[in-house]
Structure formats: C-alpha cells, structure tokens
C-alpha cells in the first residue's frame, strides 16, 4: 500500500483563489472537501493517505516549512498539494507542477494524464497545460521542502466559467477518484 501525504493548499487567513459560479468556493474550502473524499476512498485504491492542512504562520515560508516538517515526520513515499488555478486572463486547463526529480516527474505525469482524461481535454486538444518543473519561484518551496517526491496539482481554472461548469458536472467525488487512480499506478 502506497503511503501518500495530501496537503490542502492555503490556510484560513489566505484561502487562495475564489472560483466563479457554479462552484463559487475558495481553494481552501474546495480542496478541504476534496481531501476528505480522497481520505474516505483511499483504501479502495490500495493507497494510505494522510491529510495535512497549512496553518498561517505569519509568513509563507514558515507556513510551508511547518506543514512539510509534519509531512516528513509521517514519512510518506510521495506528497501532493491540492490547488486550482486562477487568472485575470481567459485561461483554461489542467497542469501539474513537479520538483523535477525522476519520481516527482512520474507522479506528475500520471496525475496530469488523469486530469486530462477526466476533463476530456484530449478531445478538444486544448487545456492540457502539461507537467511543469519548478525549482524556484511560485510553488517551488512546496515542491522542495519535503523529503518525499512532491507535486502540486492545478486541475482547472477557478476563474474560467467553462472550467468551473465542467468541474461541477464532473463532481468532486470523480476528481478524488482521478487523484487516487494516479496514486494507485505509482
């Protein structure tokens, strides 16, 4: 059974992006529910997960170092941080960020493939934003602070009405199943 940490992005003070109708939720609220569904279904996929929540620490750096310190104490084989994207521009799609290590890249590719299939992004040949390596800049601290190979998943744009409608049609349970399917293939 794979042991995988699931980190809910953002915190009670800084809840992340706000999605538009029909989802109309912050990243924190949406991904907290997603993490609970994943936790309930994990054993069906031969995966053991533990959910970790980022807590406001006065600085982003302290927040990330604290939560990934807790993750390290649990000693998982992999970790994934849950998010969704947002932009002031009209942008759509799914992407996964990787630290660039071999295991992180493999986990990212498996997860991105599940997101592309779930959102039917292959059919439209649009919205597959791919796997992106981050060694510095936005997201890099989360990818590099833990001992386990890490990824950050951005399955849709909360600022894009079509992405939000599609996510609403898919349902949070099916999104959880897509994450767990990727994990089960590791």
TrEMBL record:
<dbReference type="GO" id="GO:0008745">
    <property type="term" value="F:N-acetylmuramoyl-L-alanine amidase activity"/>
</dbReference>
<feature type="domain" description="MurNAc-LAA">
    <location>
        <begin position="4"/>
        <end position="182"/>
    </location>
</feature>
<dbReference type="GO" id="GO:0009253">
    <property type="term" value="P:peptidoglycan catabolic process"/>
</dbReference>
<dbReference type="InterPro" id="IPR002508">
    <property type="entry name" value="MurNAc-LAA_cat"/>
</dbReference>
<protein>
    <submittedName>
        <fullName>N-acetylmuramoyl-L-alanine amidase</fullName>
    </submittedName>
</protein>
<dbReference type="Pfam" id="PF01520">
    <property type="entry name" value="Amidase_3"/>
</dbReference>
């Amino acid at each position: 059974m794979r042991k995988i940490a699931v980190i809910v992005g953002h915190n009670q003070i800084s809840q992340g992006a706000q999605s538009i109708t029909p989802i109309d939720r912050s990243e924190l609220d949406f991904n907290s529910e997603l993490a609970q569904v994943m936790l309930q279904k994990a054993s069906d996929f031969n995966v053991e997960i533990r959910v970790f929540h980022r807590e406001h620490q006065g600085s982003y750096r302290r927040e990330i170092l604290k939560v990934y310190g807790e993750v390290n104490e649990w000693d998982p084989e992999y970790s994934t941080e849950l998010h969704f994207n947002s932009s002031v521009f009209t942008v759509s799609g799914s992407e996964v960020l990787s630290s660039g290590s071999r295991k992180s890249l493999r986990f990212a590719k498996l997860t991105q493939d599940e997101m592309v299939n779930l959102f039917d992004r292959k059919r439209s040949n649009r919205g597959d934003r791919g796997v992106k390596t981050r060694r510095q800049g936005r997201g890099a601290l989360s990818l590099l602070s833990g001992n386990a190979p890490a990824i950050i998943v951005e399955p849709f744009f909360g600022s894009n009405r079509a992405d939000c409608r599609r996510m609403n049609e898919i349902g949070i349970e099916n999104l959880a199943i897509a994450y767990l399917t990727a994990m089960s293939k590791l």
